[in-house]
Amino acid sequence: MSTQVAVTQQETAVIVPNGSGAAAILSAGIGSFAIAIFAIAADKSAFVKDLFVFYKPTGALSGETTAAVLLWLVTWAVLNWRWRKRTVSLGRINIIAPGLLGLSLLLTFPPIGDLF
Amino acid sequence: MEFTTRSLWTLIHGMGFGALYLLAGSGAMVALYRRNLTDSSSQSAPGGDRFLGIYLAVMAALSWLTVLTGTYIIYPWYRATPPAGSTNLAAFPRALLLSHPATRQWHMVGMEWKEHVAWIVPIAITMAAFIAIKYAGDLRYHLQLRNALRGFVVISLLAAGIAGFFGAMLDKNAPVEGGQTIQLVGEEIK
Fold first, then answer.
1. What's the pLDDT tens digit per position in A7-18?
2. Residue of B116, B127, B152 lying closest to A35 (CB–CB)
3. ipTM > 0.90 for the complex
4. Cα distance from B188 to chain A (closest Cα, Å)?
5. Half-sphere exposure of B27 toward its Cβ, with a 13 Å CA cutoff?
6. For the segment A19-64, what is each residue's pLDDT rounded down to a tens digit?
7. For residue A72, what are the domain limits?
8. pTM of the full structure
9. Which among A61, A98, A104 has the least Cβ separation from residue B75?
10. How many CB atoms lie within 10 A of CB B130?
11. d(C-alpha B144, C-alpha B24), whole Å
12. What chain B residue is nearest to A64 in terms of C-alpha separation?
């Protein structure tokens, strides 16, 4: 019995905290959602559209996607830095991140994106 | 039998990187399902965790190659503006699609959705690869991380499927053609 307890305690001690995973999940949701938001913003405003032209042959798509990828990476780095040694509650993150991912699928669909 | 450099790039982008990603995606689902079966009861097969991480990392590389070739090599050819007064729009797929009511929505809905939704794929699958590599065997202790991993792989496949479908249909209605001609098999003209 005492050996079993000792083994369980040893196993618990070496489990990697879920913080880094939580940071990756939430930032992926935010990055995906940013693609949809930037696409809608560029579609609605000529000023924003011009702002997103990072590479002329590709047009605003270059800026929308580069900005979203940068936002994703920065968010990931910051969250990972803050959570890497912690065990965080994944319940809410596992609802918010896939929700943002699902919303980005819907909002990039032009008939829905055009509603805004 | 010949094709152009632009059509070669669309082949590399769609039939190469993109289709390979979709094929690999079904394999990833099987691997994740099998991984889940062993999670609660026992250790996974030796090397299995490492294999899953490498497999998802290869998928992530494929997805990045797909979106980068699509956005920065093929898309500029697709959206090129024809010179004023042009009547032959074959070299300008976007203009060709928009010129006819029957094909207009392939651009307005198909391309507009594809060009953005495709970028969700590398973000989602890079995250999945990171978790699989970082946690490897420890994933068996993290049910919620495993659930997120599976969810993001499924959504990345859905997004890749949407992009792939519209890519194929757009290329069917207005193929990206032009550039140098590459002759595979030629016939002597008598």
1. 455 445 578 899
2. B116
3. no
4. 39
5. 14
6. 999 999 999 999 999 999 999 999 999 999 999 999 999 999 999 9
7. 28-113
8. 0.89
9. A61
10. 23
11. 24
12. B116
